[in-house]
Amino acid sequence: MTTLDALMSRLRIRQLQLLIALDEHKSMHKAAGVMSMTQSAASKMLGELESIFAAQLFERSKNGMIPNQFGHCVIRHARLLTMDLSALCDDISEIRSGRGGRLAIGSIMGAIPEIVVPVLDELHASQQNLSVEVVEDTSAKMLLQLDEGHLDLVIGRTVVSDQPAKYRYQKIGDEPLSVVVGHAHPPLPENVEIRDLIDHRWVVYPTQMPLRALLEREMDLAGLTMPGNTISTASTFVTVTLLMQNTGLVSVLPTDIASLCARHGMLRILPIRLRSQSQSFGIVTRKGGPISPPAARFIEMLKVRLAAAWPPGE
Fold first, then answer.
1. Cross-strand bridge partners of residue 253
2. Fold match between 4-97 and 177-269?
3. Are 113 and 260 in contact, with CB atoms under 8 Å apart?
4. Average pLDDT, stretch 51-60?
5. Distance CA 135, CA 32 (A)
6. How far is it, in rounded angstroms, from Cα 236 to Cα 116?
7. What's the CATH code, domain 4-97?
8. Would you say residue 129 has pLDDT above 90?
9. How confident is the model at residue 314 (pLDDT cuts 50, 70, 90)?
10. Superfamily of chain region 177-269
11. Whole-model pTM?
């Protein structure tokens, strides 16, 4: 049986071109002419292909060379591979021209509504052929993806890394946080405090995450111990869904996320001022490696937007 390793070591693009030419012209002589090679060289190349697949690919008839079921199968995939290679050439051309390419961004959830999405909208308007992937996860996991080359940049934190110095870090700001409940939660006093929510069940971030540590500090400042019946999740979607469906739950979310959900009637923000300062976040890229043109453009647009939002001296 032909294996992928065997194909990768023996198959050549020119062989696939010959198959397509034979399918189109039904003649070894004509296919060889299109390929600018002798008929004997073309016949030898076809023999090599049939050896790779251990099957005859064409039948000779009065109508010329007709592909059999094996031939049709290989030709179909040859055309798909050719199309993919053509798309690759187009993508390279688009990248060189500055119009296309691929951009993979990782972002903490709090930065997505007001930081990532507006800049992506602006970037898309100027580069409509750009392919974009957005990953929302913890900073620790996204830094690993950045190290492996799966992400071009991260909007997150480097303090969670054992080696923060190996990254370029440009601070954006601190991430404001809000205490939230579901929209259907019964009204609470205007002067509500964290200690008033002790009977609620908390939806919290997993251990070792900065926002989990912040909540633990807030509990300690209020003279409370962290409840043992928490629900732990790093998913914004899970947190919001739980709060919407259960009025006995409470959580802490980045204010930008909380405000977005509140505007759409999903959550309510409680008037509780948190005393602990949240950790800053920023633009993170790899040191010692080039930044792709789309990533550089995204960072440039983001800096312009931030400068307009927070002029020097404010």
1. 178
2. no
3. yes
4. 92
5. 49
6. 16
7. 1.10.10.10
8. no
9. very low
10. Periplasmic binding protein-like II (3.40.190.10)
11. 0.65
